[in-house]
Write a structure and sequence with these properties.
CATH architecture of the domain at 235-372: 2-Layer Sandwich
Structural class: alpha+beta
Distance between the termini: 38 Å
Shape: elongated
Largest sheet: 5 strands, mixed
Bound molecules: manganese (II) ion
CATH topology of the domain at 235-372: Beta Polymerase, domain 2
Helix content: 40-55%
Number of helices: 33
CATH superfamily of the domain at 235-372: Beta Polymerase, domain 2
């Protein structure tokens, strides 16, 4: 959000320097609300591109819908019928067939009026009836807002469209008109509708190649969701366009003239970019716009492909080319059927000029996408049949619907599909030739999970086109990918979650690491519990713990162990739950009530060894005068230089000389006391210490650390973890060692481990 504020401020500042003509004309999309379109006007619009239109059918639909909606009104106060009529009008601009126009007129009748499917079938035929029913189903799904429901909607939407793509075209026109009239809807639903439009309908329009529709949907959503940013961008855009008005005409005519001189007939025109696309670019790249090329693109539209390349030749020999900007989507069309040549030159007026060079047909497809294929073509069969043969976009749709049947979880599906909507795909193969379609920028991890969750979870390496490569390698079209797996790896490194690009892979990694982490904690907890029981010489048995579960407020033994591993409950709590007597001994030990009992607990209590005997004050005070305890959170171990701090009424607390906590007593020298170690070499005793370990996030890495400590005879009392980055976990480990040499040896062994990035001792 900080970026957003900064951009708005910059733009406001920049705008103030320009004489701004107040923009009085409404945005292109928002048509002034004049009277309702006449029956005759609609028929005329259709006839202009389809001379053979069934006028009678159109007239019947017009009258039927008008009567059905009767006196219903919209939120704006307009007669309800104005809505289906406008939707139909939007579709005439896409030059769609009669059935589509009629279905648009009728699209809200089954849901909102007395009309029935049977009646519509009877009057308008089965084809139109099926279209209207498809739209009715969608509308019923649309009254909800939550993510899961949204996912479910999208799913149903795509399933419905897969039957007949005209359902999508009508749905998009319906959404466009609703967005154009969004101001009349209550603010709360306004936001939801705009978000849904930006998330689903705009990308869907884009994926179907309908750029004009996509841009208008995006802009209307942007205006609703972020009015401040929209206004600022719009104002600045208007100001720059105004300032460059003459230059734009100049560039158009110079381009035309130069092409003509070289015998190329072309239609050249400049086109303003939309606020939303400028805004997203500014957010993405943290740049402002100053150049004309930032807000204007120029198109050169020609008769045929050959003329396109000739025009390119003329442009490139007339003006200097900006390197790295040339793209030929004519020879290699985009996945959504888009074809065009892109290039940027330093053109007339020394301006950077972005050019799109293409034929009339390509231009139609670039603007109208899948709808361009559906153009009414006499005697070529139904538009849907036509689409199936000609359109890549429709093939994508079919593919996506295929995924639907495999995806059990609506959220996952939504994540997956959103990604797919925004990105073009790459197609890769398994060694056996199975096709795996992934969103662009996907890597081998995504590939592995797309093949099978088990393959993803156990992936340890890969070969791309026969060569070893890292699992994070981005895939390109046509790659043959062999995933190498290992049974030893039961769960993927959690860091993969941020590497994966597909929702499917991310969700699977999350699931697998969650389980693996829990298992690690449970294993650790069990180790701690068993050790405590062994020392206390009490018997541990799963069955006995099962009986104690209610007292620990846990539902399973695994739960208890994981809680101990996480440090939520102590091993001694477990002992107490199983052996109520245990508590008494422990309390007695802490306060050293009876000598005999305390001696016994020297072994029984790993958490609180009776250590007061191991340190004696130097000089003045006698050993028995004051109770001696060690500082909490990583105290001193033999070998450390130590100091005692006297707390009246409590006793002496022993700190290692390097403990930061000693700073608190600097002002009170009277409390400082010289002390020295008094170790009985014949009965080795353990002392608590604390270390901090930066551990690489990998399955089993925690276990490796625990094993090193155990193998070197250190006792782990407690481990707490905090995640510092996707790659590292910070472990704070309380352990018991014999002395400084012992502790140093353990630290050195830990440092030698690959999974350990850093180890340091901590003194509380
Ligand atoms: Mn509607």
């Amino acid at each position: 959000m900080a970026v957003r504020r900064r951009i708005i401020r910059q733009m406001q500042a920049a705008t103030e320097q320009v004489a701004v003509a107040p923009s009085s004309s409404p945005p292109r999309g928002a048509k002034p609300r004049s009277g309702i379109m006449r029956q005759y006007d609609l028929v005329e619009r259709v006839r202009s591109y389809n001379p053979d239109t069934d006028e009678d059918l159109l007239n019947r639909a017009y009258v039927y819908a008008m009567k059905a909606h009767g006196a219903q009104t919209r939120a704006s106060g307009d007669p309800y019928f104005s809505h289906p009529l406008e939707v139909a009008a939007i579709l005439t601009a896409l030059k769609l067939d009669d059935a589509t126009i009629v279905a648009a007129l009728l699209h809200d009748t089954i849901e909102d009026t007395e009309a029935t499917r049977a009646e519509i079938d009877q009057i308008f035929g089965h084809e139109i009836g099926a279209l209207v029913e498809g739209l009715t189903k969608l509308k019923r799904l649309e009254l909800v807002s939550r993510e899961a429901k949204q996912a479910e909607n999208l799913r149903k939407l795509l399933l419905a469209i897969a039957d007949d793509v005209r359902v999508l075209l009508i749905k998009l026109a319906d959404r466009l008109h609703n967005m154009r009239t969004l101001e009349f809807v209550p603010p709360a639903s306004r936001r939801r509708i705009a978000e849904e439009t930006l998330d689903i309908y705009a990308p869907l329009a884009g994926r179907m190649g309908m750029q004009e529709m996509r841009e208008e949907l995006e802009d209307l959503s942007f205006r609703t969701l972020d009015p401040e940013a929209y206004a600022v961008v719009k104002q600045r855009l208007d100001a720059l366009a105004e300032r460059n008005r003459n230059l734009i005409g100049e560039i158009e005519s110079q381009l035309s003239k130069n092409l003509q001189k070289n015998g190329v007939v072309a239609h050249v025109y400049g086109r303003r970019k939309k606020p939303f696309s400028i805004w997203t670019k500014m957010e993405r790249k943290s740049v402002g716009f100053e150049q004309l090329s930032d807000i204007f693109g120029f198109r050169i539209v020609l008769d045929n492909v050959e003329a396109c390349y000739r025009a390119l030749g003329v442009v490139h020999t007339t003006w200097p080319v900006v390197p790295g900007r040339f793209k030929d989507y004519i020879s290699t069309p985009k996945q959504n059927d888009y074809r065009s040549i892109h290039t940027t030159v330093i053109g007339p007026g020394n301006q950077r000029v972005e050019l799109q060079i293409r034929t009339e047909d390509m231009d139609q497809i670039a603007e109208f996408g899948i709808a361009a294929h559906a153009f009414y073509k006499d005697g070529v069969g139904s538009p849907t049949e036509l689409l199936k043969r000609e359109s890549n976009a429709f093939a994508w749709l079919r593919h996506t619907v295929g995924i639907l049947s495999e995806s059990a979880n609506p959220e996952e599906f939504l994540e997956h599909t959103k990604l797919e909507l925004f990105h073009d795909q790459v197609f890769c193969f398994t060694p056996k030739g199975r096709l795996i379609a992934l969103p662009r920028h996907a890597n081998v991890i995504d590939f592995a999970y797309a093949v099978h969750t088990d393959v993803g979870n156990s992936a340890v390496g890969c070969k791309i086109n026969g060569k070893f490569a890292p699992l994070s390698s981005e895939l390109t079209n046509g790659d043959e990918v062999e995933v190498l797996t290992s049974k030893a790896q039961s769960a993927p490194p959690s860091a993969w979650e941020s590497l994966a690009r597909t929702g499917r892979a991310r969700a699977a990694i999350r699931r697998a690491t969650r389980t693996a982490v829990r298992d690690q904690y449970a294993g650790l907890g069990r180790r701690i519990v068993e050790r405590l029981f062994a020392r206390a010489k009490i018997e541990y048995a799963d069955d006995k713990l099962k009986g104690a579960l209610p007292r620990l407020a846990r539902t399973s033994i695994e739960d208890v162990m994981a809680s101990v591993g996480r440090g939520e409950i102590k091993a001694s709590d477990v002992a107490r739950a199983m052996y109520p007597d245990y508590k008494e001994e422990r309390v007695a030990a802490r306060y050293g009530a009876k000598k005999g009992l305390a001696a016994k607990l020297k072994q029984a209590q790993p958490h609180h060894p009776a250590r007061s005997a191991s340190v004696i004050p130097v000089g003045g005070l006698g050993k028995a005068d004051l109770p001696i305890k060690f500082a909490p959170n990583g105290g001193a171990v033999p070998g450390d230089r130590i100091v005692g701090i006297i707390t009246p009424g409590e006793g002496i607390t022993i700190y290692p000389i390097q403990a930061p906590a000693l700073k608190d007593f600097e002002e009170e020298p009277e409390r400082w006391l010289d002390v020295r170690w008094d170790i009985d070499e014949t009965t080795p005793q353990r002392f608590p210490a604390r270390i901090r370990v930066d551990n690489v996030n990998e399955p089993g890495s925690l276990a490796q650390v625990a094993t090193v400590i155990a193998e070197h005879d250190g006792n782990i009392d407690n481990i707490s973890m905090s995640r510092r980055s996707p790659d590292f976990t910070e472990l704070t480990i309380d352990l018991e060692v014999y002395d400084l040499k012992h502790l140093s040896a353990i630290i050195a062994q830990l440092r030698a481990k690959a999974v350990v990035a850093r180890v340091e001792r901590v003194n509380g």
